[in-house]
Design a protein that fits this description.
The complex is a heterodimer of chains A (355) and B (386). Chain A is of the alpha+beta class. Chain A is built from eleven helices and ten strands. Chain B is of the alpha+beta class. Chain B contains eleven helices and eight strands. The N and C termini of chain B lie close together (11 Å). The chains are: A alpha+beta (355), B alpha+beta (386). At the A-B interface, helix 6, helix 7, helix 8, helix 10 and helix 11 of A face helix 3, helix 7, helix 8, helix 9 and helix 11 of B.
């Protein structure tokens, strides 16, 4: 059962999205004019800085409430940097850096990318696939300061960006730091590493994927009940029912594992083995669910679901893109496999049973 | 209705971890005493009366049932811990497990008081083995086509017909069986079946063993030739067994035994890969671990919802559908991941042996206790499609 605070946060988010981020309306919109009023409403409700304590300029919601908001964002296939700003605020807050009232994103967004701190404190390096980098004014950066992690707030205009987009057409840019002077910086808390940031990002994407899957299932079931072929709704055919049952299974798996990872992070003192095990598993399994489910849902909808006009692609393509952020499923599977192998066979079941 | 699937992130409470330690210590003692070998799933007799009695003495059979019937009034989550630890250790639990999981709860709900008092404590002591009499030569998944007939006579019922593929019937003390007491009606083809508690020592019952493709016994044909079942052995409503089936399904279908049946090949895989596997093996192993963790979190969640008094029938069916497919595919995945290893690799011989057994067992996993196709029908109904 979600606690009161989570429910209130999720309801507030759902109301705003229903009014200002309706996927059908957005899909038909001629331009990006919908983004500005949506962001203003989110800002007014204090959602983008939900994970920032009040003393640092945020609204001080708990982690569970933030994850609840992100689940709802996934259900709307939200295409503004809400998740990214939440994550950026969280990262800055961990180093007690005050968050600006601005859309933000986090850098890096891939496990192998490194930003390094030079001897004079300037940042250099390159990070690929940074979500919404082009649409935000500030970056929360995790950099390597001669082996010590440093957290920095950077003005987006001080960096060089390419024009890349993800499968869903959202900005996902390569950001180049060429001796960039941070606006402010501070050492990361002890025990924090780039892996911690990747795990947090992976948990966030898992929760969003599960949310998108919930909507995909609802849309698919509703369509199967309406669309008539061979004089029956297609949902009456066993072959279609079996596919939808498989889809429900994938959605269920994604919900369970992402909810478990979010809960683990919300309860965790540090990014320990439990967080690694849960968040990596969540990213692996939700990404697999996204792959399976996109195929099934498109099969249910047939040609109409393959059109630009239909809303289905807003969910399927976005969810498929989310697989790649903060370490894809193959990356995390290799990491998890190495970890389990290192622990050895005798320690395997105790690890699984500990969660 | 739209899909509103619910999987709360239930955590096992602290008392479960104390219990887990106790269970592991008990099993370690049994292994040390030579009762069974946890690394040899294929070997040994899975029916062990002495072992089941010792498990009963620990209070781990029927542990959620009321104390007045021999239970311990512990939670579904505590039972979950016992079940998964027993399953992972490959314990010889066949004798008591079906009674613990599904027969006992049916008796608890539908039997007359004096039957409960007579039978349930003996289940809890690990003395009684149950079989489930559902499939017949002409009806398997189509449960409500059962023909084996119960005819009303003075003081009870006369049974004629046969059940088939009945697991454990060769050793069972009792069977919970579905018999036809009336013909189906035009409006309801599920009408007319009644659930009975059958004492397997009743004259007129003959058990004919059927070997499985693993080369081992397991299946049976059970023939009823004028076998008498007394009135007080009717479980629930006459002609109305179909109403009783659904709520028990979540218990039967969502447990850890629905994805841990071939688990033993996974530690063997880790052993054979060693501490530094190549990238392909590491990725393959990692995916299996994530999938297993997901199934377990789903299954624990259903156990928590059951404990809270909910009836997560669709969620339970989903756990069995995903879980049995996973455990069925697991031997094949392990085979692929070890395909390029040297035959001399450490533990290779044992892995090959376990893999061979798991591969032969695999086909039954998506058939027993509700086929994949039936489960998906139930899920589709839950989605509002039928």
């Amino acid at each position: 059962m979600p606690a009161e605070e989570e429910r209130i946060a999720a309801d507030a988010a759902a109301r705003i999205f229903a009014d200002l981020a309706d996927p059908q309306t957005i899909n038909k919109a001629a331009n990006c004019g919908w983004k500005e009023p949506l962001w203003r409403a989110l800002d007014d409700a204090g959602l983008p800085l939900a994970w920032v304590p009040e003393i640092l300029g945020g609204s001080g919601a708990n982690l569970a409430a933030g994850f609840a908001i992100l689940g709802v964002a996934g259900r709307f296939a939200l295409a503004v940097p809400l998740a990214e700003t939440l994550a950026a605020g969280w990262l800055l807050a961990s180093a007690s850096i005050k968050a600006p009232m601005a859309p933000m994103t986090v850098v890096p967004a891939r496990p192998s990318d490194r930003i390094t701190v030079e001897t004079d404190g300037r940042l250099s390096g390159r990070a690929a696939g940074v979500p919404f980098a082009q649409e935000v004014s500030r970056f929360a950066v995790l950099a390597d300061d001669r082996g010590q992690p440093l957290i920095a707030l950077v003005d987006a205009q001080d960096c060089r960006l390419n024009d890349a987009r993800n499968l869903a057409g959202d900005a996902a840019n390569t950001v180049t730091f060429d001796r960039v002077k941070p606006l402010v910086s501070a050492p990361a808390p002890s025990g924090f590493s780039q892996t911690s940031l990747m795990l947090m990002g992976s948990a966030i994407r898992s929760v969003e994927i599960a949310g998108a899957l919930e909507t995909i299932l609802s849309l698919s079931v509703a369509y199967a009940g309406e669309r008539v072929a061979f004089e029956r709704p297609i949902g009456k055919f066993q072959a279609v029912q079996q596919n939808l049952a498989r889809l429900a299974g994938e959605v269920a798996a994604a919900l369970a594992v992402s909810g478990s990872a979010a809960d683990t992070i919300a309860q965790a003192e540090t990014f320990d083995e439990a967080v690694f095990f849960e968040a990596s598993s969540a990213k692996i399994r939700t990404a697999e669910a996204a792959t399976e489910s996109a195929a099934i849902a498109h099969q249910v909808f047939g040609a109409i679901g393959f059109t630009q006009e239909h809303v289905l692609h807003r969910f399927t393509l976005r969810m498929l893109s989310w697989r790649d952020d903060f370490g894809n499923e193959s990356y995390w599977a290799a990491e998890l496999g190495k970890h389990v192998a290192r622990r050895g066979a005798g320690e395997f079941w105790p690890l699984v049973a500990s969660r | 209705m739209t899909a509103n699937l619910q999987f709360d992130p239930i955590r096992l409470p602290p008392e479960c971890e104390a219990l887990r330690a106790e269970v592991r210590a008990f099993l370690a003692d049994e292994i040390a005493a030579g009762t069974f070998d946890p690394h040899q799933a294929a070997h040994g007799d899975s029916y062990n009366r002495a072992f089941s009695r010792r498990v009963g003495a620990k209070g781990w059979i029927g542990m959620t049932w009321p104390k007045r019937y021999g239970g311990r009034e512990r939670t579904q989550l505590e039972r979950y811990v016992v079940t998964e630890e027993f399953r992972v250790a490959n314990t010889p639990s066949h004798l008591h497990f079906v009674a613990d999981r599904q027969s006992g709860p049916v008796i608890l709900k539908y039997a007359p008081e004096h039957i409960k008092e007579r039978v349930l404590p003996r289940i809890c002591h690990g003395e009684l083995c149950f079989s489930i009499g559902m499939s017949e030569p002409g009806s398997g998944s189509d449960l409500f086509a059962a023909k084996t007939k119960a005819t009303k006579i003075d003081g009870g019922w006369r049974i004629n017909g046969s059940k088939i593929w009945t697991t454990s019937a060769q050793v069972a003390d009792y069977m919970l069986a579905l018999f036809r007491t009336s013909p189906p009606t035009k409006e309801n083809r599920r009408h007319g079946l009644t659930q009975f508690l059958v004492d397997m020592k009743t004259p007129g019952i003959k058990v004919n063993p059927i070997n499985q493709m693993t080369g081992k016994p397991g299946f049976n044909e059970v023939v009823f030739d004028d076998a008498f079942v007394p009135d007080d052995h009717v479980m629930g409503e006459i002609d109305g067994a179909w109403k009783q089936a659904t709520s028990e399904l979540a218990y039967e279908r969502s447990g850890p035994e629905r994805f841990l049946e071939t688990f033993y090949v996974l530690p063997e895989l880790i052993r054979v890969l060693g501490p530094e596997p190549d990238l392909r093996s590491a990725e393959g192993l990692g995916r299996l671990v994530a999938q297993l963790h997901t199934l377990r979190r789903m299954s624990v969640s259903v156990a928590g919802m059951l404990q809270a008094g909910k009836e997560p029938v669709v969620e339970g069916s989903i756990v069995k559908d995903l879980g049995t497919l996973w455990e069925q595919k697991l031997p094949g995945r392990v085979r692929e991941l070890t395909a390029f290893l040297e035959p001399e690799a450490i533990n290779h011989a044992n892995l090959a042996e376990q893999l061979a057994f798991a591969t032969t067992v695999a086909p039954k996993l998506t058939i027993q206790g509700g086929t994949t196709e039936i489960l998906r029908g139930i899920i589709a109904r839950g989605l509002g499609l039928r």
